[in-house]
């Protein structure tokens, strides 16, 4: 069989490379689909919820949630509401100044990665809340967590002393 001329090889190479790239991409997408993860929606659940008891004359405190997402797609926590707070709860992150002072910075949303989750802590992401009345350890505070893609989740967070957490089972 004769060797193709240079004039024929150049167009075949120009067409062949994109066709090969598309074929490889289709094989990869087919494998992803075969594993059952393609198009799998987020599936977020709350496994822990607690809120610090306000101390002294402090009007604000913080709530913390541990969220898991065993779905195939990421989601975002975009809003939190509560009938038990004097002002709407706000997502925030703790930041440090160059002099070492801590402050809260409001954030619009928090990522809940696929096949992972989000654990809120006093040194990272949390929810700033202002109680309507006095909250005592052991009481429960109602929250509704709203997500960009998933269903809203209603949860009751237990009030604990600052610096502690709770192992109490969650109640919807």
TrEMBL record:
SUPFAM superfamilies: DR1885-like metal-binding protein (SSF110087)
Residue ranges crossing the lipid bilayer per the database entry: 12-32
Listed InterPro entries: LpqE-like (IPR007410), Lxx211020-like (IPR058248), PCuAC_sf (IPR036182)
Origin: domain of life: Bacteria
Keywords (A to Z) from UniProt: Membrane, Transmembrane, Transmembrane helix
Gene3D superfamilies: PCu(A)C copper chaperone
Protein name as annotated: Membrane protein
